[in-house]
Design a protein that fits this description.
The protein has 321 residues and is of the alpha/beta class. The chain has one domain: Divalent-metal-dependent TIM barrel enzymes (TIM Barrel), CATH 3.20.20. It has ten helices and ten strands. It has an eight-stranded parallel β-sheet with strand order 1-10-9-8-7-6-5-2. Strands 3-4 form a two-stranded antiparallel sheet. Helix 3 runs parallel beside helix 4 and helix 8 crosses helix 9. The longest helix is centred in the C-terminal third of the chain and has 29 residues.
Length: 321
Amino acid sequence: MTADVPLRDRASVFTDEIDPDFVVACRTAAAAGLRYVDVRKIGGVFSHQVPRERWPELATVLADHGLRLGAVQSNFGKCAISGPEYDEHLGFFPTLVEQAHFFGTDVMRVFPFWNETKQRYAPPFPGGIRPNLEPTLGEIVARFRPAAELARKEGVRLGLEPEHTTYGGSPQEVARIVEAVDNPNVGVAWDVSNGWDDATIDAAYDLFRGRIVNVHVKERVLSPDERRLLERSGHPQRRQPALLGTGALPWTQVITTLEGDGYRGLYSIETHFGTRGEAGWPKLMAGTTYYMYALRELLADAESRLAAAGGATGQEAAAGG
């Protein structure tokens, strides 16, 4: 639904990475020049928990600020693989599909269930795949199938995000699950930072090529090699977030590679700065606002680079240019 939108206008942002108040979040995003926002939580609850009678009110807020909904960034699948929690998630999935249709998007982020086996990096698991994935893969596919089939029937594209607490913790695991599910409406929500410790960006992209439905934008201070070097020297570092464009991720390279290969989806800001401390929410809003301007600059620069190189993007691609 964004194939005819120029690259410079395909920035989006999780509203709850700005403010829990949807009006405040939309006003801030519009003021920063964005044309899209994504929903995860609104007013402290997940989007599927917002009563249907409030949906028209939210749609009016979007329209009043010249915004469209880019993606439903759901928490579906962040649950046990069976039992009451799974039943609850399967129960609210149709609401998510209905919500996507109501707000005019066909993109939804999902997950492939909790994995109690933690990832490790010293030494890493062979191939970036934990040993319990293959024995559980049949059950993962079977449990995920009802959502995948409904998505296919309703024309909604699901993107599995690399997230270390789930069975899709690494790019290799996500790719294996997508392959096993074997549904054209199931692809990848590529959080480029997530999984970088398990596979290089180039290697992850090779695994995901042609299946990416959404790109999550965050920044980090150190590359995996820098983190490992500090760890070997006795100074281990967490994967600390940074302001977009000031950290280790090669965002210009990532964007131009994606666009050159035909990606025409959104780039969705998910800063993960958090809201700790007395000034937590104001700091998050300030940091995310910086991201919005920085991402717009990155996209415009990439668009110019691609045009200079003779690559078609956005409306040009849709018109066959």
